[in-house]
Design a protein that fits this description.
The protein contains 13 helices and no strands. It is mostly helical. Helix 2 runs antiparallel to helix 4 and helix 10 crosses helix 13. Bound molecules: dephospho coenzyme A and adenosine-5'-triphosphate.
Length: about 280
Amino acid sequence: MRALKLHELSLADRLADMAVDALIDEADLSPKPALVDRRGNGAHNDLHLGLMHASALSLWPMFKEMAEAAIDVGEVGLPLREALGRIGREGEQAMLATTGGVNTHRGAIWALGLLTAAAALEPRAVTLTAAKLALLTDRYAPQPMSHGAQVAQRFGARGAREEAQLGFPSVVQRGLPQLHKSRRQNVGEQNARLDALLAIMTDLADTCVLYRAGLEGLHAMQRGAQAVLDAGGSATLAGRRQLHELDHQLLALNASPGGAADLLAACLFIDRLDGAL
Ligand SMILES: CC(C)(COP(=O)(O)OP(=O)(O)OC[C@H]1O[C@@H](n2cnc3c(N)ncnc32)[C@H](O)[C@@H]1O)[C@@H](O)C(=O)NCCC(=O)NCCS
Ligand SMILES: Nc1ncnc2c1ncn2[C@@H]1O[C@H](COP(=O)(O)OP(=O)(O)OP(=O)(O)O)[C@@H](O)[C@H]1O
């Protein structure tokens, strides 16, 4: 029998690995405020860590197919955008079949799907390329009255779509710089990732939070995340106290920052990709 050689993995295989690894790392990271993690379910009664893992793994073929579509088509344009839309909708069906109908990774399919395709096309300009794809309109996309669409009507927040169209500013301007800064301070990788999540939360219009807890919830998330960072971050005693307080507040408001969690996964994906270039 021939041993599997790692370098024989295709680019699409490796990108799919990176996307799934980013989702698993996001899920495992603990203690995340009001989100599913190793401690428990956060503000979700229909989610748990095993389900997040199973869901992440079920998306591997979808990420691979998205990368392959990008390589086959070879350029940003409507044909690729519409192929990704179709593959993403099939991936969502695979996710729902795995989870018994629970939405574990809808926002992540969107963000990481675009980034995976972009990485296959332009590994050195990933967020810009993902933004160009997100700006194109998929003529076949259904327009359901999603939670995000309801929040857009009520609060004018355009959520996941706008974040991608702007080139993931929460990741590029908040998450990644904080991840690097905390790593330089030698706080440990888990604390650096928690700090990156908090940095994303300080400024995000997270439609999961808006849908569940309105502006009160959104302000509690943004202010509380900033308070942890101001106190010295997750690695300090004062920061940990603030983090505990934020967890408490968000749970009381039933406000789960699912959008911020997806963007942390996007941040970890780009960080891995940068390391592999
Ligand atoms: C663009 C999406 C996310 C539309 O979402 P919508 O705004 O209608 O809200 P919905 O409540 O369905 O889901 C929002 C998801 O995004 C995440 N999210 C919430 N807020 C934010 C934010 N500010 N930034 C990023 N992600 C966010 C949440 O985790 C949530 O699960 C997506 O579901 C969609 O329409 N996909 C179409 C399929 C497609 O084209 N796929 C191609 C993949 S490349
Ligand atoms: N670790 C995590 N814990 C919780 N949510 C996460 C986590 N990682 C990512 N998410 C994101 O959060 C979203 C779940 O949020 P939410 O439960 O508000 O969505 P929903 O199914 O649309 O709403 P609801 O459960 O209120 O009916 C998922 O789509 C997923 O993208």
